[in-house]
Each structure stands twice: as structure tokens, then as C-alpha cells.
Amino acid sequence: MRRKSFPIVLAAPSGAGKTSLAQALVERRTDTVFSLSATTRPPRPAEQNGVHYEFVDDAGFDRLIDNGELLEWAHVHGRRYGTLRRGVDEALDAGRIVLLDIDVQGARDLRTTLPDAVLVFVLPPTTAEMIRRLENRKSESREELATRMRTALAEIEQVKEFDYVLVNDDFEETMRSLEAILGAEMHRIGRAAELDDVLAAFRADIDVSLKGTG
User: Fold this and answer.
1) I want to staple 134 with a disulfide (CB 3.0 to 4.6 A). Which of 15, 25, 149, 179 is the partner?
2) Which helix H or strand E contains 91, and what residues bound it?
3) CB within 8 A of 64, min separation 6: which ones?
4) Looking at beta carbons, which pairs linking 51-59 to residues 24 or more positions away fall under 8 Å?
């Protein structure tokens, strides 16, 4: 039975490991693709424009907003991030599951524009582990780390607005849980695109069988 495609959103405080989870999910599933986001922050080492993000300046980001090219956008850690509409629309039209790796505010806003989206919140196992992961990046100053910690405090207060919550204490176990969520969501009644036709066929076959035994 053909299934309707849908977006799945991963959101988390910095250091929870959601980007690693998102990358692994896309690598393991041929039916799942990344949604490309735009950002005004500079690329980190090894990040490529058009692959990890669409890197733009403030004027470019303003144009994306004005032209209606973003499904949602938000200020995060002093920079702007937004989900590009064209990539999401193209993937859904092709029947692919679209994975969005975005911030908590963006996830909440996206539910307004894409009510079919599945929202998953990822928590780090402990605060100490979250800090360790952030420090190991060596890409932020002490002030930036403090900003991320304050943001994390605000973000975890929103967890109950999500559909699912995962604690990323064991990567493979968390991946299994994430794939289980994906599998269950694919089999929701509302995503069965041909359900009426399938049920009609069952009714017709049963009617024929009943007439044959009458």
C-alpha cells in the first residue's frame, strides 16, 4: 500500500547529538532525505555550502524571507536559521520522508505550516556530557558556550510540546528508537494513501465469497 510522505523534525539543545543522529538516519534509509536550511552564520571547518547549509549574509536572508522561500526561521545564538521551502516541497512531492534538523523554536513554528510533521526532541544524557560535547567542538568561545547553555535551559522547557522525546545516552540504541518512531509513523491510518481502494477491494472479495456460499 502506498504511504503518504511526511516531514520528521529533530530538535535539541546544543550538544545533544541530534546532527549525528540525523546524518546516520539519512545514511541508513534510502527513503529519507535532508532538508537544507539557510543560515547567516559562517561555515565551520569541513562544512560545504549547499550540502550542510545554504550560507548567506543578512541581506540574502532578508531576500529569502521577503520572497516567501522559508517555511520557518528563527534567531539562534545570535544568527538566523531558516528551512528552505523548495527542498521540502520537492522531497514530499517525490514521496520521500524529509528530515529537518532545526532548533526548538523552528520546530514549533513548522507545525503551523506543516501540521503533518512529526516532532522529536533529543536530550543529552546529562548536563556534564552536553558541556563536554560542546567543549570538544572547539568552535565556540566561552561567551558563545554560555549563550548555548542559556538557550538550552529555555529549550528543554518546551519538550512537552513535541510528539516524542529521546535521551541520547547510547547512540545505537537511540538510533533504533528513532527508526522505530519513523516506522510507526509511516503506518498511521492517515498516511495510507490508497486505504479506501484497499478496503473496497476487501469488501468486494468478501461479497463474492458470501454469494458463493449462499
Assistant:
1) 15
2) helix 85-93
3) 38, 56, 70, 73, 82, 84
4) 54/84
Compute the distance between CA of residue 124 and CA of residue 110 in angstroms, rounded to an integer.
23
| Nine cell digits for residue 70 | 522559508
For the segment(s) 7-213, the CATH number from 3.40.50.300, 3.30.365.10, 3.30.300.30, 3.40.190.10 is 3.40.50.300
What's the longest Cα–Cα distance across the chain?
A: 81
Q: What is the C-alpha to C-alpha distance for residues 37 and 130, in angstroms, rounded to an integer?
A: 24
What is the value of pTM for the model shown? 0.82
Q: Which residue has the cell 514521496?
A: 95
pLDDT digits (tens, 9 = 90+) for 52-72: 899 999 999 999 999 999 999
Q: Which residues contact 132 (CB under 8 A, 6 or more apart)?
A: 15
Indicate if the alpha-carbon torsion angle 104, 106, 112, 118 is positive or negative: negative
Query: What is the gyration radius of the CA atoms in the chain, in angstroms?
Result: 20
Q: How far is Cα 114 from Cα 96, in angstroms, rounded to an integer?
A: 15
